[in-house]
Amino acid sequence: MPTPLIITSSLGILAFLLLFPALGTHPAVFWWQMAATNLILTLSALLTDRHLRTSLAHDLNCLATSKLRWWGLLSAAILYLVFWLGHEGLLWLCPDVTDLQIGRVYQLKNALPHWQIVLLITAVIGPGEEIFWRGYLQRNLVRYYGTRRGILLAVLLYSGVHITSANPLLILAALICGAFWAALYQWKNSLCITIISHVTWDLLVFLILPLR
What we know:
single chain; mainly alpha; 10 helices; 0% strand
């Protein structure tokens, strides 16, 4: 693998590992730190990967006249349904643990005014995660290690960086989301679809139809 790819990927993984300890202690700081991390990683990925810039530009040009946005919205609704069913099942199996761990995540919901959260998710966090984790990291891992191993590595890394949150349900959620968006990106080869899906799902699960 080329040195710039190794450096950018390693810095991105480290940045996310350092991000999640603030989740439970400083939720307002977490939002801004998450936005800054994604902005820096997005710019780094775009500057070091010409193919990423080209594919993203092509995607954006096609967005207005294609069905990309509908695939994104539909996939977000499907993923939300998966989480709703999983949430109900976990509450039935272990209500106290589930409520505690989900409650730690939902501290974020009231850490900032909702309009600021919407702005950060829509403009920076959702697009940034998809550009870095799917468009940059996954695509290059697939390129160098093959489809199956590349996707598996990308999903494990995406869920693995959440380990510093010390929240098993958040790690599990990241694993499910990572696998879902990885498969969607590989299937449709479109960052716009995964960005729309990611942003819509975030807004649904945090603000529009929260699970707690």
